[in-house]
Amino acid sequence: MKKGIIIALILMSIGFAAVTTSLVINGTINYGYDSDEFGVYFSEAILDGVVHNEYIDEGTKKSITFTTKDLSKQGDRSILEYQVMNNSKQYDAEVAINCERLESGGNVSETQTSEYTEITPSPASLTIKAQESRKGTITVELKKVSTKDIEEKFKCSLTVTPTEREEEANEYIAEDSCNNVAKPNLGTNGKLIPVTIDENGNVTKVNKANEDWYDYCNKKWANAVILKSEPLKSYDDDQQINMDDIEAMFVWIPKYKYRLWNVGVEDPLYTVHSIEIEFDTEDTTDIDGVSCATPMESGKIGNCSNGEYMTHPAFKSFDVDGFWVGKFETGYKDAQSKAGAQQDNSETSHIIIKPDVYSWCNLTVKNMFNAAKGYEENLQSHMMKNTEWGAVAYLSHSIFGINKEVTINNNNQLKTGYAALPTADQSKYLGVLGDGVPFNTAWNTENGVTASTTGNTTGVYDMSGGSGEYVAAYVPESEKDKSTFSKDELKTIDEKYFDVYDKEIKLNSYDKMILGDATGEMGPFDNYEDEDNENRWHNRWYADWSYLADDILPWFARGGAYLHGVVAGQFYFNRYVGAVNGDAGFRIVLAPSN
Q1: What are 282-338's pLDDT values in tens digits?
Q2: DSSP result, 247-287
Q3: What whole-number distance in Å separates Cα of residue 320 and Cα of residue 281?
Q4: How many CB atoms lie within 10 A of CB 283?
Q5: Is 347 helix (H, G, I), strand (E, B) or coil?
Q6: Burial class for 183, CB neighbours closer than 10 Å (0-12, 13-18, 19+)
Q7: Which letter does DSSP use for residue 427 in this model?
Q8: Eight-class DSSP state of 188
Q9: Which of 80, 94, 87, 110 is nearest to 10 (CA)?
Q10: How distant, in Å, are the alpha carbons of 58, 330, 341, 357, 468 from that of 412?
């Protein structure tokens, strides 16, 4: 094991004239993530209270530039807050922080102190246990005002030394948990056909007893398809299925419990991290400090606390050991264009769920709901709920999924299963994306799988971009509701089909979340100006757009549309009136009874 790994290099340039001072931080940060051995990485940067969301990767982006507020008088400070996370299982990490003054040419200065400024890391060292994160700050203070132009530079290095543990730190995963996921439930009507999908996107029928059908330990999620009724073809086990014969594709989300980290919203245990999941068909036992009963209600936390485990609510509404989620956004069968898929009706015969089809948009929430519910009633088909979205998003950001933000589908024709190329600068596309979208690639390509929740072809797609997706989640008794549901209708529908939120909720009252819905738990939240000069609320999970539904805009939407650029993602949430919207579609879930 290599000692003394440099994981972060922060270069601070301070230039000031007379009584005005500006601070620029240029950071070159090695990503440093290795899930199989030792993985510590620099995961967050906040300067003077403003979140900076350029996340470092192993490939093209290896530096960040920050610009601080002016330091105009003696004693003024600029503070960089950072977070370092240890995603290792077997190693703790000792991190030393050292700042050195540089000459103008970039060499270390013999004179380490400055007449004008003082730079202080706090703490000077960090002990970060396996699977945990720690925060620190680097503060620059103006000690003396200059009357002439002066430039000073500092290099701050975070040096990491791993310490091997006696036991692996994955206590949160029961032994063989990922080998004992709930068996995919294909229902009793024979329509769901178990399949495998190879790296090229070839779909092959498989016997459900085949051990190679799925392997959640290795991010291979179970898939199944429904074939078109006309012409109906019969396939044998191990026979490749023609994509033209497929009507709908689904992915199995097995029941699990997860470790809570942000119950109170205001003081999260940590922010971006690998979500700790244990597959389990039994509900959590209510043991203080270990596990808690799932509250299942907007604004309620019950007796849950950070660090405890909670059965995800998505599995409790229908009392199932798992559910099938549409692999792609719901498309409009036989549509030959984006405009052709803009249809306001609820005819189930139009449903198609597969790659490279036009997303079904521009219909009311009521029509979405009725189309989804009427699709396969024997399999308890329904419009995806907010909590079900949360269950898929959390599984995606675990060791069983891609474990990072999925790539946006930036196809401006609303075709399913696409991924933006890594060279696309999504910041410039906020709200102004037209025909000149950056190039993108299909779902079954090397780049295309970065838009999947697994990082391979077995996962769920279109959870960032594509069309924005309405979910069956709303604020009741809103006078602005344009879903075409009447208040009485909503009251007569079985409550398991909706997530209903506190009617006193406001756009940023994040404590009104339903634990597990991937809204309030994604905080803290910040309001700041994006590159298009618009101010928005963002969460700390990749700065995704974060607006709760309220009595003015009472219906939730998830994922963002292609035009939302950098603020889209699997942790994006927003609100609309429930009316037709040319960029808003929906997703279907199947929940066969146990």
Answers
A1: 999 999 889 999 999 999 999 999 989 999 999 999 999 999 999 999 999 999 999
A2: EEEEEEEE-EEEE-S-SSSSS-S-SS----EEE-SSPPP--
A3: 9
A4: 16
A5: coil
A6: middle
A7: G
A8: S
A9: 80
A10: 28, 16, 13, 13, 12
**Residues 6 or more apart in contact with residue 273 via CB below 8 angstroms:** 43, 85, 87, 133, 261
| 404: its two tokens | 């990072």
Residue-wise burial string across 62-93, b where 16 or more C-beta atoms lie within 10 A, e elsewhere: eebebebeebeeeebebbbbbbbbbbbbbbbb
CA distances from 576 to 409, 551, 552, 554, 582 (A): 21, 10, 8, 6, 13
Backbone angles phi and psi of 575, in degrees to 5: -140, 145
Overall average pLDDT of the 493-519 stretch: 97
Find the distance separating the first CA and the last CA of the chain, reported in whole Å: 48
User: What is the model's pTM?
Assistant: 0.79
Alpha carbon distance 250, 230 (integer Å): 20
Are 311 and 281 spatial neighbours (Cβ–Cβ below 8 Å)?
no
Phi, psi torsion values for 247, nearest 5 degrees: -95, -40
The beta strand positions in 354-442, using DSSP E, are 382-383, 418-420, 440-442
- Record the tokens describing residue 14, joined without a space: 């301070």
**Token pair of 551, please?**
């009595």
Alpha-carbon span 37 to 568, nearest angstrom? 31
Reported as a single tens digit per residue, the pLDDT across 41-71 is: 555 566 666 665 554 444 444 455 556 666 6
Place of tokens 């002990």: 127
71/118 Cα distance (integer angstroms): 13
- Return d(Cα 235, Cα 241) in angstroms, integer: 7
Which secondary-structure segment (H or E) carries 488? helix 487-492
The whole-angstrom separation of Cα 43 and Cα 541 is: 10
Q: Using one digit for the tens of pLDDT, what is the confidence trace for 76-128? A: 887 777 777 776 667 777 877 778 777 776 777 787 777 888 888 888 888 87
